[in-house]
Input
Amino acid sequence: MISQFRTQLRRLPRQVIYGKTGLDASLSLMGEIEERLSDSTSTLRRLQVIKKATLDELAALESVKQVSEARRSLADLKRAMRDYPDDPQTLSEVRRLESFITEHSKMAEMAITERFQEPISDS
Output
């Protein structure tokens, strides 16, 4: 719609020049088109804000889900370690999961709390 309104604004002056539209009618139409263009641009900007917030929320939720899955895997591994406490692969995987959980828990926390600390702009 935005490009359509811009195209209409570019074409209207030619219609006046070639006598297809009167000056008063053309000025009135240009005003209406400019209002619609402004409204459409504002709506697009608001939709982009909503889309960004949605994508940020989705990323935070995915991170929380990954941490939850890693915690389950870690619990399973620790139960399995009772039978094989010195298995190097299991120990390595436990360290990897613990590191993953620590790192991604912090990332999820930051992603969630940053949204509430950001100033909201009216522009």
